[in-house]
Amino acid sequence: YPLNGAAKEEDLDDLDFPQRYLEYYYNLGKDTKQVYRSKDNGPVIKKTQEMQKFLGLEVTGKLDLDTLEMMRKPRCGVPDVGQ
Amino acid sequence: FHDFLGTPKWRKNHLTYRIVNYTQDLPREAVDSAIEKALRVWEEVSTLTFSRMHEGEADIMISFAVREHGDFYPFDGPGKSLAHAYPPGPGFYGDVHFDDDEKWTEDTSGTNLFLVAAHELGHSLGLFHSDDPEALMYPLYSSFRDLTQFRLSQDDVDGIQSLYGPPPTSPDTPVVPTESSPLESKIPAACDPALSFDAVSTLRGEILFFKDRYLWRKLHWKPQPEFHLISTFWPSLPSDLDAAYEVISKDTVFIFKGNKFWALRGSEVQAGYPKSIHTLGLPPAIQKIDAAVSDKEKKKTYFFTGDKYWRFDEKRQSMEQGFPRLIADDFPGVDGKVDAVVQSFGFFYFFSGSTQLEFDPNARMVTHIFKSNSWLLC
C-alpha cells in the first residue's frame, strides 16, 4: 500500500478487507485469521489465485492493484465458490 | 455456467413471485416493471413462466432490506454487496433480497434494478455464479452502456436450459399443466386452414391470438410464435374470450367475455375487475361483444357486435353520440360477423372465420385478404 499520510480508520479496515472477501466469497477458512501479517500465507495465495482465475484476472496469487480494484467492485452477495 | 451443489431446481414450470416491499429510490411501478422485465429475460429462453401474488407465500419472495435483515447474511451499506438470493426450495429458498443502502435506478446512473434483479433471479432459478465475464451470472456488477441492447449470454442460456429445457418451439406443443384437466379440449393447430380466433390484441409490441384456452404469442424478434395456455399468464382469466384490445397509452389490455371485461397490465390482472361492459356506455340490451380495437393515433376504441359498432372516446372516457352505426357503412368491404380486430402498422386487420381483411382506415377500403392464420408462419 502507498504510504501517503496517516492511516485512517477506514484504511485500517482495508487491511482486513481482502481477508474477509476471500473468507466470504471464496471459502477461505476462518482459522487463517490475520495471515496477511504473517509469513506463512500458502492457503491465502492459493485462494487468491482461485479468485483471480474465477474473475478472469491474471493469476499471480498477489494482491496487486488490479486484483484489489476488482475486489472493490460492487457485486452480488452470493459466494463464488462453495455454498 | 455452474449450478448450486446438488443442482436444486424447481419441479414445476409455472412459478409465483411476490414483491414484499419497495425501495424509496423508485416509484412502485418502476420496481414492478423492472422485476417483470427481469423475469421475462428467463421466461423467453426456458419453459418457465411466472405470475404475481399480492399476499401469502410465493415461490420467489422479493424484498429490500439494509444491514442485518434476519438471514444471517447482513448487507454492508452502500457498494460492495448489492443483493443476494437463494437457490430453489421452500421457505426462504428462492427468495431475493436487495440491499436498500444502494441507490436503485431505472438507468445506469445508480445501480440498475433490472440488471441486478435478472442476475439474482438466475440464483432463484438454480444458477450459481459463472466465471464468464460476459455472462449475466458473472458475480461483479457492470452497468451496460445501452440497456436496450441487453441480451443473455449463451452461457446464461445454456445454464437455464440445462435445468428447465428450451421454450416450446413447436406451435403444437403448448406448455400445459402436468395433470390433465377434466375439461381437456382439442388443442387448436396453428396451420389448420379453418382456424379462426376468439380475440386478437397487441401487448407491449407483441400480438396475442386467443383461441379456446390457448393463445399464440407473436414476438416481433422471433419468427416462430409461442403457444401457451391463457392461464399460464393470467390464471384468473376465463377461456373462450369474446374480444381483446390494448390501450397503449395506458399500457393496459382489456379482455371481454359475456357482459364482463378485465384489465391487464403485463401479467397482472388489475384490481377491481372484472367490470360490467355497460360501464363503458354500451346499452343494457347488449350482453356481449364480438370484437374490439383501440386506434392508438385517434385515441378511439371500436366495439363490434353483429352488424353494428360503437365508438368510445378514450380522451373523454365516454361512448360517442350517434352510435351504433352499421359496420358496412363505415368499413366498406367488411361484412359478416367480426371475430376479432387488431391494429398494426396503421391498418385494421378484421378476422372473420378463417378469413382476414386488411382495412386501410384512411382510404376506407379493404386492401388485402389473407388467411386468418397468416401471422403464425403457415
The sequence of SSEs of chain B as H and E is EHEEEEEEHHEEEEHEEEEEEEEEEHEEEE
The proportion of residues in beta strands of chain B is 25-35%
What is the global morphology of chain A? Answer: globular
- Quaternary structure state of the chains depicted: heterodimer
Q: Summarize the helix and strand pattern of chain A as letters.
A: HHHE
Largest interface: A-B, 16 and 26 residues
How are the strands ordered across the major sheet of chain B? 2-1-3-5-4
Rg of chain B (CA only):
23 Å
The fraction of residues in strands of chain A falls at: under 5%
Largest sheet of chain A: none
Compute the average pLDDT of chain A. 77
Can you summarize the main beta sheet of chain B?
A: 5 strands, mixed
Tally of alpha and pi helices of chain A: 3
First CA to last CA of chain B: what distance? 37 Å
Q: What structural category arises from helix and sheet content of chain A?
A: mainly alpha
* Mean pLDDT level of chain B: 89
The value of Rg of chain A in angstroms is: 13 Å
